[in-house]
Amino acid sequence: MALTNTTITSWKLQEIVAHSSNVSSLVLGKASGRLLATGGEDCRVNIWAVSKPNCIMSLTGHTSPVECIQFNSSEERVVAGSQSGSLRLWDLEAAKILRTLMGHKASVCSLDFHPMGEYLASGSVDSNIKLWDVRRKGCVFRYKGHTQPVHCLAFSPDGKWLASASDDSTIKLWDLIAGKMITEFTSHTSAVNVVQFHPNEYLLASGSADRTVKLWDLEKFNMIGSSEGETGAVSILFNPDGSCLYSGSENTLRVYGWEPDRCFDVVHVGWGKVSDLAISNNQMIAVSYSQNNVSWYVVDLSRVKKSGSVIQGLIQDKPIPAPTSALGTTLRRNYERPTTSCTGQDPEGERRSPSSEDEKEDKESSAEITNPEDYKEIFQPHSVISRTPPKRTEPFPAPLEHSFSESVLEKPGPAVKIVTPVIDRAGQLKGPITSSTPVQRVEPTVIAAAPRIILSARNEPIGLNAGDFLSHARNAKAGVMGDEEALAQIRKGHDTMCVMLTSRYKNLDTVRSVWASGDVKTSLDSAVSMNDLSIVVDVLNILNLKPSLWKLDLCTSILPQIEDLLQSKYESYVQTGCISLKLILKRFWPLISDTLAAPPSVGVDITREERHQKCKACYKQLKNLSNVVKNRAEQVGRHGSTFKELQLLMAPLDC
């Protein structure tokens, strides 16, 4: 069978250490899809360019953790709400604080900018929603009605309505001009964490902790569709042309249509719990965070189905389709784009003039430019006339993955469809050829390519072919490669590798700082939570040298990782996994078997019960690993004998 290079559907772009303490919030700029703001427990707001390892700007002034952030539509301003209830607004072009807004009595947990005017809305744990006039530095209206924290706010594209989603399982729609609630949607059965308006039509989408995505008609104020089967809390995003709705949940991206309800595609991505989505150059940019790390992921939307055949079994409700015109489009109204800005009423005299206390707050806030080159490129003031046109953003290049050629597999009978292989937990750059591990697309038939093993010791580089630099004939000028072209070929992937190594160094430094406290279990859990097998391997290589450090607690954390290591394409990963598994079997199998075989104790023995639960979890993982070891033991080669030895050690599991 011939091998060809095929582009994968989704990949991990980069992972960064975003703050000195845990990340508490983040948001992508929806206009460009290339700007990210992160808020941390260190009370800072950091601004990043997607795919670049260094922070552009660090914004200070908050004195408590930053709980939510939002860009305005032009991405020239950013507002952040804190745990203490204050809001701070920065001008990113001018690199300065614009406003400090006080008024909430509890943590601010949602924000949105009005699309046309100098207004923004904030929602709080105190269940109140406030509308702020940024120019007059005051609250112009307060909306009451929710009974629990308001976790998402969204202005309609025409700027006339405000939608709010709350932990009380409701969505409320507010008329900004009349200053009152228009309607309330109550079909969700758990906290609603996100709402978004359709870019053109009178439609609203919502996502909830009840693992559903629902669509609401804003003319008739009724639900027109509901999905089931989400894998957790969701992030949602309409396609820019409004043709479909994307839903990102635990490790999964779904593509929905409506009227009638249908799911066009499901893509499995290793992003964990996705926090925000944006679209740029027909690519979906997604971000997730864990502890003080933030990860970017890319999904190639050109390889995702947005119409056509439907994946069955994912939609439960079957509403009656709305009437359509002869062109097939719905007759629902579209938003009008007014030139006037938002208006409102004064809420009981809350509007106030700037005080000396406010001015002091502003002076204590700052915007520190940490990367002048990227700052100048991204936030060049519009008043400055550039001699060269601005750079156009290019799509992020997709890594290549080897797979069997479809033409070679064509046989009489039903057509065979090829899919990219299943995602590996590493999800990280391991060499110049690939920048991530692939994800699996949902297709009727799957034929997986045999993985190419990358040896731990090799005499030639990966991704470079010496023959590319040599001419095939002495007089064949066309075959001669110039110096510049040769250097470019050698440097190919260098920048990507540098980014990967920098991220790996920062992650290892985080693990080392935890290790220094003497807590080996917590440091190992920290390495596992980074979803990067290279970090796990580095930690295991140390633990394997010191068997005395191993405890039963470590086994429960590391056995699931060993399963991935044994099936890795990297020989060094397989070797490390085998050593760790052998160590666990020799040191802990007698304890595990004796504990599980012992009769129940009389009375309450919490320590014994905890040990029994850990041994039970280890036994279950070892049983899963025995199947992997059995399959690998049948292979011919130097690893075959290693797996046969492991198979003998695991024989008691079958007794």
UniProtKB/TrEMBL annotation:
GO terms for molecular function: microtubule binding. WD repeats lie at residues 16-58, 59-100, 101-142, 143-184, 185-226. Residues 348-366 have a biased composition (Basic and acidic residues). GO terms for cellular component: centrosome; cytoplasm; katanin complex; microtubule; spindle pole. Its main location: cytoplasm. It is found in: Cytoplasm, Cytoskeleton, Spindle; Cytoplasm; Cytoplasm, Cytoskeleton, Microtubule organizing center, Centrosome; Cytoplasm, Cytoskeleton, Spindle pole. Pfam families: Katanin_con80 (PF13925), WD40 (PF00400). Residues 319-398 are annotated as: Disordered. Keywords: Cell cycle, Cell division, Cytoplasm, Cytoskeleton, Microtubule, Mitosis, Repeat, WD repeat. CDD domains: WD40. The keyword Cell division applies. Residues 326-344 have a biased composition (Polar residues). InterPro entries: Katanin_C-terminal, KTNB1, WD40/YVTN_repeat-like_dom_sf, WD40_PAC1, WD40_repeat_CS, WD40_repeat_dom_sf, WD40_rpt. PROSITE patterns: WD_REPEATS_1, WD_REPEATS_2, WD_REPEATS_REGION. Residues 492-650 form the Katanin p80 subunit C-terminal domain. GO terms for biological process: cell division; microtubule depolymerization; microtubule severing. SUPFAM superfamilies: WD40 repeat-like. Gene3D superfamilies: YVTN repeat-like/Quinoprotein amine dehydrogenase. Participates in a complex which severs microtubules in an ATP-dependent manner. May act to target the enzymatic subunit of this complex to sites of action such as the centrosome. Microtubule severing may promote rapid reorganization of cellular microtubule arrays and the release of microtubules from the centrosome following nucleation. Interacts with KATNA1. This interaction enhances the microtubule binding and severing activity of KATNA1 and also targets this activity to the centrosome. Belongs to the WD repeat KATNB1 family. This is Katanin p80 WD40 repeat-containing subunit B1. It comes from Cyprinus carpio carpio. The lineage of its organism: Eukaryota, Metazoa, Chordata, Craniata, Vertebrata.
